[in-house]
Amino acid sequence: MRIVFDYQIFSVQEYGGISRYVVELANHLADAKEAQVKVISPVYVNAYLATRSPRVQLVGVKMPLVKRTGRIYHAINLALARPLTALYRPNLVHETYYNGQASGPVGCKRVLTVYDMIHERFPGDFPAHDTVAKDKVAAVQRADHVICISEHTRQDLINLHGIAPEKTSVIHLGFSLSQASTPAIPPVNQPFLLYVGSRAGYKNFAGLLRAYANSPDLLKNYRLVAFGGGALTAHELDLARKFGIPAGQLVQIPGGDDVLGRLYRQAAAFIYPSLYEGFGIPPLEAMSFDCPVVCSNTSSIPEVVGDAALMFDPLSPERMAQAIGAAVTDLATRQRLIARGRERVKQFSWAACAQQTLLVYKKVLA
After folding, report:
1. In this structure, are residues 364 and 144 in contact, taking their beta carbons and an 8 Å threshold?
2. Could you tell me which of 22, 16, 19, 14 has the C-alpha nearest to residue 65?
3. Which of 14, 48, 321, 354 gives the lowest tally of CB atoms within 10 Å of its CB?
4. 182 pLDDT exceeds 60?
5. CB count, 10 Å around CB of 256?
6. Could you tell me the pLDDT band of residue 187, with boundaries at 50, 70 and 90?
7. CB under 8 Å, gap of 24 or more: what pairs does 62-70 form?
8. Pick the CATH number of 192-347 from 3.40.50.2300, 3.40.50.2000, 3.30.2310.40, 1.20.210.10
């Protein structure tokens, strides 16, 4: 079975959950020796491709991620990907994101992964010229089968776009962060709460700031650490001042997986206040480091965390603060969350994700 993963996510994402998923999937499929796997991305910016299995072939040249090169890279890939893919004569092309035009040869079987319906649910968080929602419709329509990374995403896709349920499958993601030793990181001099990733819009970081500021105990005894997502913006710093968060209590720490693992181990709790997620890998990562998880009760998040997290209404700062307080101060609650988290993460792995995906390929090709 010859499988090609196309260029789409690799040409725009240097780091990120989607490209990590595709590389992990490709690696496990190739190492299981049940498929010949190739990534065809004439030009790419992705860093994870450097960690691909020796069994995963790569056609492409790594280029720097520089502003205003996105359209150039896209044009090159659009022109070259289809003829290069046709030369390989794959049995199936797995499209890694949403494009208005197919990247594989005419007549080739296609599988698409849909990660979330955020552009449809929160259109105000994206610029007016954003075409992701429109391109997603085109990609879904031409796909022979659509994999959704959660049942919640699948139901949203069916309800919003009228796709036939039998054309869809749910395959949960795995997670990669390990308990490997990590080097020193910038010091966090008191107990802290941890937030990970992008902070804009539906991620509801502003709601977390409000909840944190409204709790005198949390504000006095814990710093709030944001990992990744870029430096704190002027707007975020203004919000912190407006809410009464003292200078130095809110910090942002950059770094890679080694730093993130250290933070998960040190944090009093991991907070996940999103209004919507297509899946959500960070709660599983936190659980694997015995870090108690406190998260929203919306979208796919309960599907992922099960009974191994304290959940709250993300639109209620009071409920959010209460849940965080319980996780960091009640010893019995902490021990229960840690124990349940250890069991919960056993249900998610990239190996299982790959095996279920291979079954979808076989069904499509049959």
Report:
1. yes
2. 14
3. 14
4. no
5. 11
6. low
7. 65/14, 70/11, 70/12
8. 3.40.50.2000
CA distances to 92, 110, 289 from 35, rounded to whole Å, are 11, 15, 33
Asked if pLDDT for residue 253 goes beyond 80, the answer is: yes
Please give the pLDDT value at position 68: 79
Kindly tell me the sign of the dihedral angle through the C-alpha atoms of 224, 306, 327, 318: positive
Look up residue 128 and give its two tokens. 């007016």
CATH of 2-174+349-365, one of 3.40.50.1000, 3.30.70.920, 3.40.50.2000, 3.90.1150.10: 3.40.50.2000
Q: Compute CA 173 distance to the chain's CA centroid, rounded to the nearest angstrom.
A: 9
| Closest to 304 measured CA to CA, from 172, 196, 178 | 172
| Separation of first and last alpha carbons in the chain | 12
Looking only at the bridges linking them, the beta strands covering 109-114 and 269-272 are unpaired
Interatomic CA distance for residues 234 and 231, integer angstroms = 9
pLDDT tens for 114-156 read 999 999 999 999 999 999 999 999 999 999 999 999 999 999 9
Residue 337 phi, psi dihedral angles, 5° rounding: -65, -40
Closest to 146 (Cα-Cα) out of 157, 133, 134: 157
- Residue percentage of the chain with pLDDT more than 90: 85
Q: How far, in Å, CA of 83 to CA of 105, rounded?
A: 7
Q: What is the pTM of this model?
A: 0.92
